[in-house]
């Protein structure tokens, strides 16, 4: 992996929320990984494991408690208005629910044009309108949508509008936070294909967050599996599919309906994800792991590169290697 | 193509429709007053005092022989003007305060809300009396006093609205795009709480008309000989046995305005909730 290929890099990222009785809730815990230029990095995990928090950290909607998010193609924007604005132009986020992520009281044309006005792009209204029309065309909507209200649009159309708004600034990095979860299955496929087409066309880099394994594996080049605020396994889609190592990843695959043939053991998890305000000792997954050992309760495993590009945090694997 | 659809939705609400027509009755009287007033409203004609309805004076005359219809036409101006100014005062000062309070929260919120709560602790009419006692009676001071009274309600409504939307996804999304706080406050959140502010404005208008009538009745609002509904009412009550219509006319005018705006507000509220 060449160094300059990396677009975004997180190192030792921690995000804590204030919990009850001053006990911090660790939504993201000591997380390090990087995303390469032009790839789609899929992030999977159960509800409440910190996927969305991570996504928002990566576009600076949230400030990390500690650790850094570093972008390689532009300056860190903290504390500098101009740089922060430049950063806001390069990073975009698309949210899960197209009904709440679009201002219901503004017309589509206004909404899509707004980012251009914020960043002072386009000489006059006419030029901006041409840009709006062309991006609407890219996402499969025509000029007739300019004067429509969001309430007149279906979920799929709204998500297309949200994509248009995110892409009109020609960003380099887009966080897709569960973008298809709120849509019908038939519309899901359309939107996924659209995202893929746009990626090729504009050379976008995606962080694709989802709890749906099929969706993630369909789109992603690499996949990270998250559990309780940390990554437990990360690797190429191929590696995660066919040779996943972590018991949690195995359980995820076996739980997903119609999953891949290579993993067919019945590994249903019992219990819920532990509360992030009371993380278990040792390996965070030991409370639900079927092959939990004494060592797992005492010691938190670190990420180990099992094969090139394939990382896993599990004592089982490390035991095998040594 | 669907432009008239929203209006139809409003008028299918019975409260809104009745309130609207009540208010419009008074408004059309005011408009009529700009073009045609039968007599000088302050012209005294003792020979024809306290007359009933005649062809010369369609609503009769008062204790000084002044034409009541002319005085009503001019009086509507005062009531509506004060209502508009007071509501404007409340909206222009109360809404920004509430917006800052709800959007930024924390210390800003605490400071603003402490001030507003302190102000709310004063009984409204007492505050108005105080201001008028200090600064004297005039249209400006009445507006100032009633305007100050109407600030808290707008602040509270705006605060709850801005609080509700400050972390809405579309607000987060525009933040991620680099939108400034001012842009988010004015262009993104404000349009979403306009319906609630309209309800508050409508109810605030009703209470401003009521308070102005109350102050004028006590002799602290508009000064004679200028006509105002509250003043007319207080003059008329001395002649209630000789000229019952004289009491009735300003009462009906006040009721039309107050009930009209209250119904309008109620109607808007239930339309918003649909």
TrEMBL record, chain A:
<keyword id="KW-0547">Nucleotide-binding</keyword>
<dbReference type="InterPro" id="IPR017871">
    <property type="entry name" value="ABC_transporter-like_CS"/>
</dbReference>
<keyword id="KW-0813">Transport</keyword>
<dbReference type="GO" id="GO:0016887">
    <property type="term" value="F:ATP hydrolysis activity"/>
</dbReference>
<dbReference type="GO" id="GO:0055085">
    <property type="term" value="P:transmembrane transport"/>
</dbReference>
<dbReference type="InterPro" id="IPR050319">
    <property type="entry name" value="ABC_transp_ATP-bind"/>
</dbReference>
<keyword id="KW-0067">ATP-binding</keyword>
<dbReference type="InterPro" id="IPR013563">
    <property type="entry name" value="Oligopep_ABC_C"/>
</dbReference>
<dbReference type="GO" id="GO:0005524">
    <property type="term" value="F:ATP binding"/>
</dbReference>
<feature type="domain" description="ABC transporter">
    <location>
        <begin position="8"/>
        <end position="253"/>
    </location>
</feature>
<dbReference type="InterPro" id="IPR027417">
    <property type="entry name" value="P-loop_NTPase"/>
</dbReference>
<protein>
    <submittedName>
        <fullName>ABC transporter ATP-binding protein</fullName>
    </submittedName>
</protein>
<dbReference type="Pfam" id="PF08352">
    <property type="entry name" value="oligo_HPY"/>
</dbReference>
<dbReference type="GO" id="GO:0015833">
    <property type="term" value="P:peptide transport"/>
</dbReference>
<dbReference type="InterPro" id="IPR003593">
    <property type="entry name" value="AAA+_ATPase"/>
</dbReference>
<dbReference type="InterPro" id="IPR003439">
    <property type="entry name" value="ABC_transporter-like_ATP-bd"/>
</dbReference>
<dbReference type="Pfam" id="PF00005">
    <property type="entry name" value="ABC_tran"/>
</dbReference>
Automatic annotation (TrEMBL), chain B:
<dbReference type="InterPro" id="IPR035906">
    <property type="entry name" value="MetI-like_sf"/>
</dbReference>
<keyword id="KW-1003">Cell membrane</keyword>
<dbReference type="InterPro" id="IPR000515">
    <property type="entry name" value="MetI-like"/>
</dbReference>
<feature type="transmembrane region" description="Helical">
    <location>
        <begin position="124"/>
        <end position="149"/>
    </location>
</feature>
<keyword id="KW-0813">Transport</keyword>
<feature type="transmembrane region" description="Helical">
    <location>
        <begin position="14"/>
        <end position="39"/>
    </location>
</feature>
<dbReference type="Pfam" id="PF00528">
    <property type="entry name" value="BPD_transp_1"/>
</dbReference>
<feature type="transmembrane region" description="Helical">
    <location>
        <begin position="243"/>
        <end position="264"/>
    </location>
</feature>
<comment type="similarity">
    <text>Belongs to the binding-protein-dependent transport system permease family.</text>
</comment>
<feature type="transmembrane region" description="Helical">
    <location>
        <begin position="80"/>
        <end position="104"/>
    </location>
</feature>
<keyword id="KW-1133">Transmembrane helix</keyword>
<dbReference type="GO" id="GO:0005886">
    <property type="term" value="C:plasma membrane"/>
</dbReference>
<keyword id="KW-0472">Membrane</keyword>
<feature type="domain" description="ABC transmembrane type-1">
    <location>
        <begin position="76"/>
        <end position="265"/>
    </location>
</feature>
<keyword id="KW-0812">Transmembrane</keyword>
<dbReference type="GO" id="GO:0055085">
    <property type="term" value="P:transmembrane transport"/>
</dbReference>
<protein>
    <submittedName>
        <fullName>ABC transporter permease</fullName>
    </submittedName>
</protein>
<dbReference type="InterPro" id="IPR050366">
    <property type="entry name" value="BP-dependent_transpt_permease"/>
</dbReference>
């Amino acid at each position: 992996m060449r160094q300059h290929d990396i677009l975004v890099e997180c190192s030792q990222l921690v995000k804590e929320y204030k919990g009850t009785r001053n006990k911090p809730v660790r939504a993201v815990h000591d997380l390090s990984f990087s995303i390469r230029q032009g790839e789609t990095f899929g992030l999977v995990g159960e509800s409440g494991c910190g996927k969305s928090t991570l996504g928002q950290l990566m576009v600076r909607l949230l400030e990390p408690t500690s650790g850094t998010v570093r972008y390689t193609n532009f300056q860190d924007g903290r504390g500098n208005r101009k740089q922060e604005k430049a950063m806001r132009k390069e990073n975009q986020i698309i949210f899960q629910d197209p009904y709440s992520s679009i201002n219901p009281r503004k017309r589509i044309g206004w909404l899509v044009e707004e980012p251009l006005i914020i960043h002072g792009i386009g000489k006059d209204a006419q030029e901006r309108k041409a840009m709006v029309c062309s991006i609407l065309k890219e996402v499969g909507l025509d000029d007739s949508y300019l004067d429509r209200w969001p309430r007149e649009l279906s979920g799929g159309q709204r998500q297309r509008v949200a994509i248009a708004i995110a892409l009109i600034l020609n960003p380099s990095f887009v966080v897709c936070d569960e973008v298809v979860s709120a849509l019908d299955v038939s519309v899901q496929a359309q939107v996924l294909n659209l995202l893929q087409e746009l990626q090729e066309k504009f050379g976008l880099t995606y962080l694709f967050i989802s709890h749906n394994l099929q969706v993630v594996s369909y789109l992603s080049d690499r996949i990270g599996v998250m559990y309780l605020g940390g990554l437990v396994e990360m690797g190429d889609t191929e590696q995660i599919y066919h040779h996943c190592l972590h018991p949690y990843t195995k359980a995820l695959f076996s739980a997903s309906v119609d999953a891949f043939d290579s993993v067919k053991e019945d590994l249903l998890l019992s219990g819920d994800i532990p509360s992030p305000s009371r993380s278990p000792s040792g390996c965070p997954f030991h409370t639900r792991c079927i092959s939990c050992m004494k060592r797992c309760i005492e010691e938190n495993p670190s990420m180990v590169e099992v094969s090139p590009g394939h990382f896993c945090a599990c004592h089982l694997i490390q035991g095998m290697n040594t | 193509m669907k432009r008239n659809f929203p209006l139809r939705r409003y008028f299918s609400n019975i409260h809104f429709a009745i309130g609207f027509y009540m208010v419009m009755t008074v408004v059309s009287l005011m408009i009529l007053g700009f073009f045609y007033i039968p007599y000088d409203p302050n012209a005294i004609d003792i020979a024809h005092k306290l007359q009933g309805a005649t062809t010369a004076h369609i609503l009769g005359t008062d204790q000084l022989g002044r034409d009541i219809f002319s005085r009503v036409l001019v009086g509507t101006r005062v009531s509506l003007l004060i209502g508009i100014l007071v509501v404007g005062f409340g909206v222009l000062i109360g809404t920004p305060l509430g917006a800052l309070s709800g959007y930024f929260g924390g210390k800003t919120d605490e400071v603003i809300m402490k001030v507003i709560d302190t102000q709310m602790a004063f009984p409204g009419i007492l505050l108005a009396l105080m201001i008028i006692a200090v600064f004297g009676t005039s249209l400006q001071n009445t507006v100032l006093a009633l305007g100050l009274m109407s600030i808290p309600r707008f602040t509270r409504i705006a605060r709850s609205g801005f609080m509700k939307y400050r972390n809405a996804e579309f607000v987060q999304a525009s933040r991620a795009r680099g939108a400034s706080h001012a842009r988010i406050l004015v262009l993104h959140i404000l349009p979403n709480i306009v319906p609630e502010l309209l309800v508050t404005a409508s109810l605030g208008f009703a209470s401003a008309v009521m308070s102005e009538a109350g102050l004028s009745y006590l002799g602290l609002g508009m000064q004679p000989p200028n006509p105002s509904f509250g003043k007319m009412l207080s003059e008329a009550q001395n002649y209630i046995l000789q000229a019952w219509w004289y009491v009735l006319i300003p009462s009906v005018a006040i009721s039309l305005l107050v009930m009209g705006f209250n119904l309008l507000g109620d109607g808007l509220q239930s339309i918003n909730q649909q």
